């Protein structure tokens, strides 16, 4: 089932729509045309009781004026681009910095802050909404007119997100969704008791600005070892240099698997509710963020006050700062090529 409703307007008067997709199991996903934001996603507990498991706001005005990228699609380049610049084919491209020393998540007016064209349809696999946005040549410093597309599809197991893009000039692109999850059904609580497993034996250490140094470290014997199920809070404040830099977990993990193939990435289990989130992706890795920089009191959906570490992010994406690291897999997109990456969020209760 699909519903579409007007959900307010942009400051310039353009209408913002909200789509709700419902599968046969009764799970729902709500997506808005502003920022291609995942506004809500319900999942069953062990007794079949549904609850919204993503953090966010009640109104589009709060998304426009709020912080944190709640549920948004970010791009052109997710995460950090060091020094706010990169070189491509011998040409230096300078990007507006929205952080002191780097550009973050595509810049201040990246994909998260744009109104996307949207249309919904019923498919053989389930209800879907397709969102499209043309990022103009030079927008936030990036070369080429980029035609971006995000498809949210509600399957029987949960939500599938497919990101695609084409360009008319060589450019760089890696998109992700910045949803904050809390599986407990109590979004005002922290996520330290959630049990995380990552299919990743390596991670990227960073400098003090959280820019990768270019090194690749093994997780074995460190607080970053989630190869076996472990509570997020167990080592989150460990005496470890990388933990100190991130003030907890805010690091890129390299997935064990073939790049471009759908690979199990993460499993998160909340014992109190029995909810399970499984993330699979074609991306080479993910940024795991434990909500360390969330303000103490954010007025979220239904008047709930979100606190410190009340949500975690599993941001599937390319290697951080790839445009400036030739040793990392490239994220260059050229005319005639198509960027396509898929991430699935599979939800269940046990």
Automatic annotation (TrEMBL):
A Pfam family that the UniProt record links to this protein: Aldose_epim
Ranges in coiled-coil conformation: none
Catalytic center residues: 178 (proton donor), 315 (proton acceptor)
Superkingdom assignment: Bacteria
Protein residues bound to beta-D-galactose: 79-80, 178-180, 250
Entry similarity comment: Belongs to the aldose epimerase family.
Identification of the protein by name: Aldose 1-epimerase
Species this protein is from: Pseudodesulfovibrio piezophilus (strain DSM 21447 / JCM 15486 / C1TLV30)
């Amino acid at each position: 089932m699909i519903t579409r409703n007007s959900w307010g307007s942009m400051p310039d008067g353009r209408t913002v729509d909200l789509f709700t997709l419902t599968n046969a199991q009764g799970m729902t996903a709500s997506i808005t045309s502003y920022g291609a934001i995942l506004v809500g996603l319900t999942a069953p507990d062990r007794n079949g009781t549904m609850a919204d498991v993503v953090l966010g706001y009640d109104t589009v005005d709060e998304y426009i004026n709020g912080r944190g990228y709640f549920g948004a699609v970010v791009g052109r380049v997710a995460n950090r681009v060091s020094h706010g610049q990169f070189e491509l084919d011998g040409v230096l491209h300078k990007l507006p910095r929205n952080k002191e020393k780097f550009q973050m998540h595509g810049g201040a007016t990246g994909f998260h802050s744009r109104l996307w064209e949207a249309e919904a349809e019923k498919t053989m696999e389930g209800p879907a909404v397709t969102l499209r946005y043309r990022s103009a040549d030079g927008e936030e410093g990036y070369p080429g007119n980029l035609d971006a597309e995000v498809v949210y599809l509600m399957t029987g197991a949960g939500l599938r997100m497919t990101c695609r893009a084409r360009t008319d000039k060589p450019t760089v692109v890696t998109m992700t969704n910045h949803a904050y999850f809390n599986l407990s059904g109590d979004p005002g609580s922290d996520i330290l008791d959630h049990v995380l497993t990552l299919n990743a034996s390596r991670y990227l250490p960073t400098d003090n600005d959280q820019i990768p140094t270019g090194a690749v470290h093994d997780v074995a014997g460190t607080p970053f070892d989630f190869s076996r199920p472990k509570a997020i809070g167990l080592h989150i404040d460990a005496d470890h240099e990388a933990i100190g830099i991130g003030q907890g977990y805010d690091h890129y993990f390299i997935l064990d698997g073939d790049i471009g193939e759908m690979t199990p990435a993460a499993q998160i289990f909340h014992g109190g509710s029995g909810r399970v989130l499984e993330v699979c992706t074609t991306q080479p890795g993910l940024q795991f963020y434990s909500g360390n920089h969330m303000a103490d009191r954010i007025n979220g959906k239904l008047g709930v006050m979100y606190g410190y570490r009340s949500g975690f992010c599993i941001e599937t994406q390319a290697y951080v700062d790839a445009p400036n690291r030739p040793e990392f897999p490239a994220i260059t997109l050229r005319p005639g090529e198509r960027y396509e990456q898929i991430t699935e969020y599979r939800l269940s209760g046990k």
